[in-house]
Design goal:
Blueprint (H helix, E strand, L loop, with lengths): L1 H17 L1 H43 L3 H12 L17 H22 L31 E6 L3 H11 L5 E6 L26 E2 L3 H9 L4 H4 L6 E5 L2 E6 L7 H5 L6 H12 L11 H10 L5 H5 L2 H11 L3 H9 L2 H7 L4 H15 L9 H13 L7 E2 L6 H17 L2 E3 L2 E10 L5 E10 L4 E6 L2 E4 L3 H9 L2 H4 L2 H7 L3 E11 L9 E4 L9 E6 H4 L4 H4 L16 E7 L2 H4 L3 H16 L8 E14 L23 E3 L18 H19 L17 H13 L10
Parallel strand pairs: 1-2, 1-11, 2-7, 4-13, 11-17
Antiparallel strand pairs: 3-6, 4-5, 8-9, 9-10, 12-15, 12-16, 13-14, 14-15
Helix pairs in contact: 3-4, 3-26, 4-26, 5-17, 5-25, 12-16, 14-16, 18-20
The structure holds flavin-adenine dinucleotide (FAD).
Keywords: Membrane, Transmembrane, Transmembrane helix
Protein name: Amine oxidase domain-containing protein
Pfam families: Amino_oxidase
C-alpha cells in the first residue's frame, strides 16, 4: 500500500522538477487567456443578463398566472413591515388561526399545482443554475508572479473538492492534500482479512447531485457506467414489508395510479391523453409522492399519512424563513416538531424515525428540527423525483470516482497527496495588519514514524468532527479562536459497516433496503444492500476473485453490505455477535430466503464518533466555511458536509457527498480570494434544481402571514 503511495508522490515530485519552466509558460498563457476571457465574459454576461431580464418579463406577462396575482395581492394588501406586531412568545394562537394559515398555504399550493399540471415536464437531465464566485482581481491588478503553498487537511469529498478547485485555479500553487488514511487516492482497495474489497458504508447518489455528475463528465466517465440505474428502496419492519420508494423518473401511469380508488382510471386516461405516453408525468411536488403512497405503502393507514401535512407547513415556514427563524427551529428537536405539528405517532414511529435513522443517523429526539426539514425537503419534497437514487455499478466510490479524480490532479496539476499522515498542529502568526495567518502544518507520518512540517500560505480544514477535535486539541493557536473550539466540541455518530457473503443468490424486492423498528437494532438505524444486484457484472471482483478463475459450474452467491447508524448500542458487541444478529435475526425477518442461505465469509468495520451529528442547537457550533472570518484569520477555511456555507449556502443538505464536495469548492474559492491578488479561476458550483413555484408561493404567503402571528411553537 505504502509503495503505491510513494510511487505516486515520486511521480508528482519528478514531474514538478522537470516540468517547471514549461508549466510556468503554460500557466502564463493560461492566465492571459483567463484575463481575456474574464473581460469578454463580463460583456457577454451583461448582454445575457439583459436578455434574461427581458425574457423573464415576457414570461411573467405571458403567464396567465392567477396564483402569481394572488401572491402579489397578498404582498400588496399587507401593511408595511413597520406595522409588524411585537411577537409575544407567551401568547397562544387559536387553531382557527392555524387553520386559516393552512388554508392560505393550501390555496397557494393548489395555485402551483394548477399552473404546473399541463406542462408535464419529464426531466431526463437535471436543470441547474451556475453561480460562480467572483474572480479575485481585475486584469489591471495582476501582481507579480507568486507561488502559493496551499494545504488541504482531510481527503474526503470536501478535501477533494478543495484540492480540485485549488489545483485547477490557474494559480502558480503547490497544493498538498494530507489524510490519515493510508491511501486517500482510492488507488489501493481496502481489503478484508480474506482479501475481499470492502468499504465503510454503501453510498447512494441522489437525483440532485449536479456537481458529482459534472465531475463524471469532466473525467470522461459515462454516468451509466459509473452508476446503477435509479433503484427502488424497500422498508422492512418486524411486520414485514412496510413501504417501497418508487423511481419516479421511470414510473409509468400504471405503476403509480393502479390501486388509486375511484379516480385512478380517470387520471390514467387523462394523463395519457394529455401527454400521449404511458409515463407518469412530473407533477408539482408533493402531488406525485402523495399519490404514490397509495400503491407503495403497504400498512400505514391513510389518516396517518395525511398527518404529514403539518410537516409541509413547518417546512415552508422554516426553510423560507430568515436565519433567525432557522436558528429557532434548530434549537428544537425533530421530535418536538412532530408533536407540535400533530404528526401521527404511527407515521413517526413506522416511517419518519427509521427514515431519519438512515438519513441523518439519529432518531428524531436527537436531531435538529432545522436539519431534518432541510433533509426531507432536499431528498423527498423539492421535486417529485428528488428521492430517485442510484449506486455504484462497479467496485467502490473510491475506485470509481476518487481514483480517476486523484490521478488527473496528480498527473496534470501536480497535486501532492500525503497518505498515512495525521495532522497535529496548525500554527498561526500575527501579521503587521493585526490579522492572524496560518504558516505551518505539522503532521505525523506513520510510514517514517516522524513528525514533519510543511509551510503554508493557506489551509482548508476538510475534517469531520472527530478529526477537527483532534487537530484543535493539538493546535493551541486555533483553539484560542471560538469558531474552532466550538466546532471541536461537537460530537459524532458511531457507524458499523458489514459485508456478508452467502453461498447462494438471494432475490429481494429491491436492492436497497431499510430495517425499521427491529428490537435487534438496539436503537440503531440499519440498511442492507444487495451488492450482487447492484453489480451483477462484477460479482467475481466483489468476492475478491479473478473473473477468469471462476469455474463454469461455480456459482457465486449474494454479497450483502449492511450498515448500522447511531450504532452505539452495538459498538460493544463482538464482530461475531454483530454478524449473528444480522444473519439470524434481521435479514431473515425481512426476507425469509436468508434463513436458508449459509454464510461463507464476513467483514465488520466499526467507526466510532466519525459521522457529523446535526444535534439540536448545533447550527451555531458548526464551522462556517470562512472559519474565524477574513478579518481575523483570512487564510484558514473549512469544508465538509457539516460546514455552514453562509451566503454561499447550497441546496444539497444533510450527510451528503454532494454537499461535502461543493463545500470544498467554495472553501477553496474563498481561500484564494483572501490570499492572492492574482487572477484565478474560481471553481464553478452548480446549483440544485430551482424550487418549484408552489413552494415559492407558499413561502411568500407564509412570510406575509407570519408578520402578524407569533411563532409560538418555537422558542
Ligand atoms: C455509513 C455511511 C453511509 C453514507 N451514505 C451516504 C449516501 O448514501 N449518500 C451520500 O451522499 N452520503 C452518504 N454518506 C455521507 C457522506 O459519505 C459524507 O457526507 C461525506 O463523505 C463527508 O465528506 P467530508 O469530506 O465532509 O468528510 P470525511 O469523508 O469524513 O473526510 C474527512 C477526512 O479527514 C481525515 N482526517 C481526520 N482527521 C485527520 C487528521 N488529523 N489528519 C489528516 N486527516 C484527517 C479522515 O481520514 C477523512 O478522510 C454516508 C456516510 C456514512 C458514514
Amino acid at each position: 500500500m505504502s509503495s503505491s503511495i510513494s510511487s505516486v508522490q515520486a511521480a508528482a515530485v519528478s514531474s514538478r522538477q522537470t516540468g517547471g519552466s514549461t508549466r510556468q509558460r503554460r500557466r502564463q498563457q493560461w492566465v492571459a487567456g483567463v484575463a481575456g476571457v474574464a473581460v469578454a465574459s463580463r460583456h457577454v454576461a451583461v448582454v445575457v443578463d439583459r436578455v434574461a431580464t427581458l425574457a423573464h418579463r415576457v414570461a411573467t406577462l405571458a403567464h396567465s398566472s392567477w396564483q402569481l396575482q394572488l401572491a402579489n395581492c397578498i404582498a400588496v394588501s399587507s401593511p408595511s413591515t413597520s406595522a409588524r406586531p411585537h411577537h409575544n412568545s407567551g401568547k397562544r394562537i387559536s387553531t382557527v388561526t392555524m387553520a386559516g394559515l393552512s388554508l392560505l398555504l393550501s390555496v397557494a399550493l393548489l395555485g402551483g399545482v394548477l399552473s404546473f399540471a399541463p406542462s408535464f415536464r419529464r426531466t431526463g437531465k437535471i436543470v441547474t443554475q451556475i453561480h460562480d464566485s467572483e474572480v479575485s482581481a481585475s486584469v489591471d491588478e495582476v501582481v507579480a508572479d507568486e507561488t502559493k503553498r496551499y494545504v488541504v487537511v482531510g481527503a474526503g469529498w470536501g478535501g477533494w473538492g478543495a484540492a480540485k478547485a485549488l489545483s485547477e485555479s490557474g494559480l502558480n500553487a503547490q497544493v498538498t492534500l494530507i489524510d490519515a488514511l493510508p491511501d486517500p487516492t482510492g488507488a489501493m482497495p481496502y481489503l478484508s482479512s480474506t482479501g475481499k474489497p470492502v468499504e465503510a458504508g454503501t453510498r447512494g447518489f441522489w437525483k440532485d447531485y449536479p456537481n458529482i455528475n459534472q465531475l463524471c463528465a469532466e473525467l470522461g466517465l459515462d454516468e451509466d457506467e459509473v452508476f446503477t440505474p435509479f433503484t427502488n428502496s424497500s422498508f422492512y419492519s418486524p411486520d414485514g414489508l412496510e413501504a417501497t420508494a418508487p423511481v419516479f423518473s421511470e414510473a409509468t401511469l400504471d405503476s403509480i395510479l393502479d390501486g388509486v380508488p375511484l379516480l385512478g382510471d380517470v387520471m390514467k386516461s387523462g394523463f395519457a391523453q394529455l401527454s400521449g405516453s404511458d409515463e407518469f408525468p412530473q407533477l408539482p411536488s408533493p402531488l406525485g409522492q402523495v399519490l404514490a403512497t397509495i400503491p407503495y405503502f403497504e400498512r400505514l393507514p391513510i389518516a396517518d399519512r395525511a398527518s404529514m401535512v403539518g410537516l409541509l407547513l413547518a417546512t415552508i415556514d422554516c426553510l423560507g424563513g430568515s436565519d433567525d427563524v432557522k436558528m429557532q427551529y434548530d434549537r428544537m428537536t425533530a421530535h418536538e416538531l412532530f408533536l407540535r405539528f400533530k404528526l401521527s405517532e404511527r407515521l413517526v414511529n413506522d416511517f419518519l424515525k427509521p427514515t431519519l435513522l438512515v438519513g441523518l443517523f439519529k432518531p428524531p429526539e436527537e436531531l435538529s428540527a432545522l436539519v431534518v426539514m432541510e433533509l426531507l425537503y432536499y431528498y423527498a419534497l423539492a421535486h417529485q423525483d428528488s428521492f430517485d437514487v442510484r449506486w455504484i455499478r462497479n467496485g467502490t466510490v473510491a475506485d470509481s470516482l476518487i481514483q480517476p479524480l486523484a490521478a488527473k490532479l496528480i498527473e496534470e496539476r501536480d497535486l501532492t497527496v500525503l497518505g498515512g499522515c495525521r495532522v497535529n498542529e496548525i500554527s498561526l502568526e500575527k501579521g503587521d495588519d493585526g490579522k492572524l495567518s496560518a504558516t505551518k502544518v505539522s503532521y505525523f507520518d506513520v510510514k517514517t514514524k516522524k513528525m514533519e512540517e510543511i509551510e503554508t500560505d493557506g489551509v482548508v480544514l476538510a475534517l469531520g468532527c472527530k478529526g477537527m477535535e483532534s487537530v484543535i486539541n493539538s493546535s493551541p493557536d486555533l483553539a484560542r479562536l471560538p469558531v474552532f473550539s466550538k466546532a471541536a466540541s461537537l460530537k459524532g455518530i458511531d457507524v458499523i459497516s458489514c459485508r456478508l457473503y452467502f453461498d447462494r443468490k438471494i432475490e429481494t424486492r429491491s436492492p436497497a433496503n431499510v430495517f425499521s423498528r427491529f428490537e435487534a437494532l438496539r436503537g440503531a438505524g440499519g440498511t442492507f444492500f444487495m451488492l450482487d444486484q447492484f453489480q451483477p457484472d462484477s460479482l467475481a471482483e466483489l468476492w475478491g476473485r479473478d473473473p477468469d478463475s471462476i469455474g463454469v459450474d461455480e456459482e457465486l452467491g449474494s454479497v450483502v453490505a449492511c450498515d448500522f447508524y447511531n450504532a452505539g448500542g452495538l459498538m460493544s458487541c463482538s464482530d461475531e455477535d454483530i454478524v449473528r444478529i444480522l444473519t439470524n435475526e434481521l435479514l431473515p425477518s425481512a426476507v425469509c430466503q436468508f434463513a436458508d442461505a449459509k454464510l461463507v465469509d464476513s467483514w465488520v468495520g466499526k467507526y466510532g464518533g466519525t459521522v457529523s451529528w446535526f444535534s439540536p442547537g448545533s447550527y451555531d457550533k458548526r464551522p462556517p466555511l470562512e472559519g474565524e472570518g477574513r478579518n481575523v484569520l483570512p487564510n484558514v477555511k473549512c469544508a465538509g458536509d457539516w460546514v455552514r456555507m453562509g451566503d454561499r449556502e447550497h441546496g444539497a443538505k444533510g450527510l451528503c457527498q454532494e454537499r461535502a464536495f461543493v463545500s470544498g469548492f467554495e472553501a477553496a474559492n474563498s481561500l484564494m480570494k483572501d490570499t492572492t491578488r492574482e487572477i484565478f479561476k474560481p471553481h464553478q458550483v452548480l446549483a440544485v434544481r430551482e424550487d418549484e413555484l408552489q413552494f415559492k408561493l407558499g413561502v411568500q404567503a407564509n412570510n406575509e402571514v407570519m408578520k402578524y402571528l407569533p411563532r409560538f411553537w418555537t422558542r
